[in-house]
């Protein structure tokens, strides 16, 4: 059986294929596909719902179960992967402390419960991860944080910095301030957005069901679980209606919506049963699950998105910077020789050389005014020029697309649109 430290060949041997898989329906057969995906992922997001974290009868945290998850996360990190968690549970924990009755809460009550519960939730993760030498970091987001460009970039930078420091980010919806207009409403879709924000290549939803079925397996004994879903089409979406609903706010429909978001952005997704001890170990050892295949790689999805955007301005670079960019480096202030156009941080810009040759496209790390202020400066001079520390890069390598010989012409044509 495959383990969290086993190789992909072992993982491929685990599990059973779906005999009824049909290419026309968007489904593909596979043996042990989910365990293989877990084994080879380099950046993982795990979503944990309230129903798994909090005992419904007592309202108390299921600490022993969470300790098992912490051990799983530690094992995945030990083999070199980066790990994040998207966790529900703050309202469920806080309502017990405040003595709220079971059932729907008014918005103000839910926000109060979240304020109390978030402290306990963060403390619980810190306590179960600490014995493994892992530092937990809390990140609270709302829907607007993932769809407004500047806030999205700030969130992305924070997650990247935490992962770089070896911290395990624990993300939750910021229910203390979120209203109906800015709420996700379920953490399945939040997890998908966070996975794309962080550039993850795999998202695992720990659920009360072990995958996507042709019908509700609790009502139809003939229902068949799909091992792999290669693409989500209308017939797949129809299978999510009323199937395998969670005790929390999400159900199979929200999981399929999450899968569409994740896979189109380059992140594969797995639905597996979380109501077991060491659920990620069980998944690695071939427990039943459904894998939704990514349509492209996370990096390619992001690069395609950047390449397809109309530039708001141009960054003019010297020959040395152009060469460094072609080697996969970030654009530093020292290599910047000119700014054209008006743009804000996060806006798409073209990158050109002093003689006008098109190099690529990027998302700007500075607005045009600050970019002009730092152009040509060494990193140690940036703070004096701006009056604050600024950023190391005018454009980070993750946010840069370099044209190859085949796409240089298209890039030049795209650049001309800004003139």
TrEMBL record:
Top-rank EC class of the record's enzyme: transferase
Catalytic activity field: L-glutamate + ATP = L-glutamyl 5-phosphate + ADP
Pathway in which this enzyme or protein is active: Amino-acid biosynthesis; L-proline biosynthesis; L-glutamate 5-semialdehyde from L-glutamate: step 1/2
GO CC aspect terms: cytosol
NCBIfam families: proB
Its biological purpose: Catalyzes the transfer of a phosphate group to glutamate to form L-glutamate 5-phosphate.
Protein name: Glutamate 5-kinase
Organism the protein comes from: Albimonas pacifica
């Amino acid at each position: 059986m495959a383990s969290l430290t086993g190789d992909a060949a072992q993982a491929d041997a685990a599990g059973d294929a779906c005999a009824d898989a049909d290419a026309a329906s968007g489904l593909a057969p596979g043996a042990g596909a989910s365990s293989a995906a877990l084994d080879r992922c380099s950046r993982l997001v795990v979503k944990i719902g309230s129903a798994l974290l909090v005992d419904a009868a007592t309202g108390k945290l299921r600490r022993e179960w969470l300790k098992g998850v912490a051990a799983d996360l530690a094992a995945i990190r030990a083999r070199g992967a980066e790990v994040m968690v998207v966790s529900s549970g703050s309202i469920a924990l806080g309502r017990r402390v405040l003595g709220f009755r079971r059932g729907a809460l008014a918005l103000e009550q839910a926000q109060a419960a979240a304020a109390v519960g978030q402290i306990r939730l963060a403390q619980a993760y810190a306590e179960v991860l600490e014995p493994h030498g892992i530092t937990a970091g809390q990140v609270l987001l709302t829907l607007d944080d993932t769809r407004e460009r500047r806030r999205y970039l700030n969130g992305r930078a924070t997650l990247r910095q935490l992962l770089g420091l070896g911290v395990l980010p624990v993300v939750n919806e910021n229910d203390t301030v979120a209203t109906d207009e800015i709420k996700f409403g379920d953490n399945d879709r939040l997890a998908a957005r966070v996975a794309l924000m962080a550039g993850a290549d795999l998202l695992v939803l720990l659920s009360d069901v072990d995958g996507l079925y042709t019908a509700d397996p609790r009502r139809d004994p003939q229902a068949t679980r799909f091992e792999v879903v290669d693409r989500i089409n209308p017939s797949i979406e129809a299978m999510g209606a009323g199937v395998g609903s969670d005790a929390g706010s999400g159900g199979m429909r929200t999981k399929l919506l999450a899968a569409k978001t994740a896979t189109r952005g380059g992140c594969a997704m797995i639905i597996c049963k979380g109501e077991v001890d060491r659920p990620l170990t069980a998944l690695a050892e071939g427990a039943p699950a459904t894998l939704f295949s990514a349509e492209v790689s996370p990096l390619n999805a992001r690069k395609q998105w950047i390449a397809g955007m109309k530039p708001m301005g141009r960054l003019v670079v010297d020959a040395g910077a152009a060469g460094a960019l072609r080697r996969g480096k970030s654009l530093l202030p020292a290599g910047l020789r000119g700014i054209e156009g008006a743009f804000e941080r996060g806006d798409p810009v073209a990158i050109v050389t002093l003689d006008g040759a098109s190099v690529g496209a990027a998302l700007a790390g500075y607005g045009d005014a600050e970019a002009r202020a730092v152009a040509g400066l060494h990193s140690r001079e940036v703070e004096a020029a701006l009056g604050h520390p600024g950023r190391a890069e005018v454009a980070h390598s993750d946010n840069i697309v370099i044209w190859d010989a085949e796409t240089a012409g298209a890039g030049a044509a795209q650049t001309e649109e800004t003139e």
